[in-house]
Design goal:
The complex is a heterodimer of chains A (about 80) and B (about 375). Chain A is mainly α. Chain A contains three helices and no strands. With about 375 residues, chain B is an alpha+beta fold. Chain B has three domains: about 5-120, Butyryl-Coa Dehydrogenase, subunit A, domain 1, CATH 1.10.540; about 125-230, Butyryl-CoA Dehydrogenase, subunit A, domain 2 (Beta Barrel), CATH 2.40.110; about 235-380, Butyryl-CoA Dehydrogenase, subunit A, domain 3 (Up-down Bundle), CATH 1.20.140.10. Chain B has eleven helices and ten strands. In chain B, the strands form three sheets. Chain B has a four-stranded mixed sheet. Chain B has a four-stranded antiparallel sheet with strand order 2-3-7-6, with helices on one face. In chain B, helix 4 (about 65-80) runs antiparallel to helix 8. The chains are: A mainly alpha (about 80), B alpha+beta (about 375). The interface of A and B includes residues 31, 46 and 55 of A.
Chain lengths: ~80, ~375
């Protein structure tokens, strides 16, 4: 499973389990559509750190990094390179 | 798995407990009746190092790690009967000092942390509003950028330490389109600044020696240099405050529960009815068994939290569990104490009824029990 697929799987199972979403595209606006709220962002951060063995700093906990699967994949790659 | 604390940590705990018992319990009931904050007690705590406990020494603090701080707070809550003073100390530390330490610029840290650590200035944290309590990110106090300043307008309710604060960490909306997702920012606001009005102390059910008030902002100009962290990072600052508050403040409550338990045991072993000490009746002793169970389980959870934080782990779920469990346990312990003491427990003179009045807010502040259950549910994937 690619990183994006793992993110998608987590979001659908843990954050959007009660929505009738027919799949989730990589660029789907998660914050604007209420899929990710303040707690959801924290859950995603913990998932990303555990699953992909990266460390996200306080500066990474900004909406831009969680607004879509694409955005999250990008920050994961940046932190992997930085490690 | 090693559950032992170091000799140094245990010594700190013993010393704080002894200090609190000796210095912080003078005229507690009288001050509670008069709703009078203990300034002398505050100064003594500052001299003892409590007000700068987790702050690094380069900023005037004691440099204690979170696990040591949790142990210390437990001792403070145990030794000090003035739950209001304990509450004010915690509001100062987790609502003001810690956010400054974690998110402040070097200039901000150097300017404020030494004075906060020495208790020379008192800190507070203003987020709740009349229409934004549990729904904290629906706050409407605005901060509009104008040149090199922000203009604050709005009001905050239920600000612990409000009437006595010298600096307040104020949360305001800098981008109304974004809410929690980058729309809220934190500001360091010095009391007395034009446009800021602090309301009169509010009368409440308990914690009467910890003053609380509203704060109003009307075209209040704050220099950009007073922005805490980056613009839009208010959610991160708030979450960090909550994590420290939900662990360290509730460590104090474990200490309080243990003090209540000790009082109940002493009473149950001295009071006779129907020819027997009441502690020999299971209806009485079982209530103390439950107190002990809740103390030990709550304590274990807090120690785990301290350990996790030292490992750099995120602890939002664990602190929600601890806060929910300990706050509910504290209320139960206080009510059980009244019951065990019978009619005497109901009388103000004994100080037991004060524990009940002080404990009720514990399931409300730092996020209500309902909110903690929401957080836990979220982590269950619900």
């Amino acid at each position: 499973m690619t990183e994006k697929d793992q993110l998608r799987d987590f979001i659908l199972k843990e954050l959007a389990w009660d929505r009738s979403l027919d799949g989730l595209s990589d660029d789907y606006p998660l914050l604007d559509n209420g899929i990710v709220d303040s707690l959801g962002m924290l859950k995603l951060l913990e998932f990303i750190e555990d699953k992909f063995t990266v460390v996200l700093s306080d500066e990474d906990l900004i909406p831009e990094n969680f607004e879509s699967i694409d955005a999250m994949a990008e920050i994961i790659e940046k932190r992997k390179i930085a490690a | 798995m090693d559950f032992e604390f170091t000799a140094e940590q245990l010594a700190i705990a013993r010393e704080i407990k002894a200090f609190a018992k000796k210095e912080l319990n003078l005229s507690v009931l009288e001050r509670d009746t008069e709703s009078r904050f203990d300034r002398d007690g505050w100064k003594k705590c500052a001299e003892f190092g409590i007000l700068g406990l987790p702050i690094p020494s380069e900023y005037g603090g004691e440099g204690a790690d979170i696990l040591t701080t949790i142990l210390a707070m437990e001792s403070l809550g145990n030794g000090c009967c003035d739950n209001g003073l304990v509450h004010s100390i915690n509001s100062h530390l987790w609502g003001c000092s810690i956010p400054l330490l974690r998110f402040g610029s070097e200039e901000q840290k150097e300017k404020y942390l030494p004075a906060l650590s020495k208790g020379q200035i008192i800190g507070a944290h203003a987020v709740t509003e009349p229409d934004a309590g549990s729904d904290v990110f629906s706050i409407t106090t605005s901060a509009v950028k104008t040149g090199d300043s922000y203009i604050l307008n709005g009001s905050k309710s239920i600000v612990s330490n409000g009437p006595i604060a010298d600096i307040v960490i104020v949360f305001a909306v800098t981008d109304p389109q974004r809410s929690f997702a980058g729309g809220v920012s934190g500001f360091i606001v010095e009391a007395g600044i034009p446009g800021m009005t602090i309301g009169s102390p509010l009368k409440k059910m308990g914690l009467n020696t910890s003053p609380i008030s509203e704060i109003f902002f009307k075209d209040c100009k704050i220099p950009q240099l007073q922005l805490l962290g980056k613009e839009g990072f208010g959610t991160g600052i708030f979450n960090e405050t909550m994590v420290w508050e939900r662990s360290c403040l509730f460590a104090c409550h474990i200490g309080t529960m243990e003090r209540i338990l000790d009082e109940c045991i002493n009473y149950a072993k001295s009071r006779k009815q129907f020819g027997r000490f009441i502690g020999s009746y299971q209806a009485v002793s079982h209530q103390m068994s439950d107190m002990k169970m809740n103390i030990e389980l709550g304590r274990l959870m807090l120690h785990k939290i301290g350990w996790l934080k030292l490992q750099g782990k995120k602890i939002m779920l664990e602190t929600a569990i601890a806060k929910l469990f300990i706050s509910e346990g504290l209320k139960k312990a206080a009510l059980a104490a009244v019951q065990i003491h019978g009619a005497y427990g109901y009388m103000a003179e004994m100080g037991i009824e004060k524990e009940v009045r002080d404990s009720v807010a514990a399931t409300i502040y730092s996020g209500t029990s309902e909110i903690q259950r929401n957080i836990i549910s979220k982590y269950l994937g619900l």
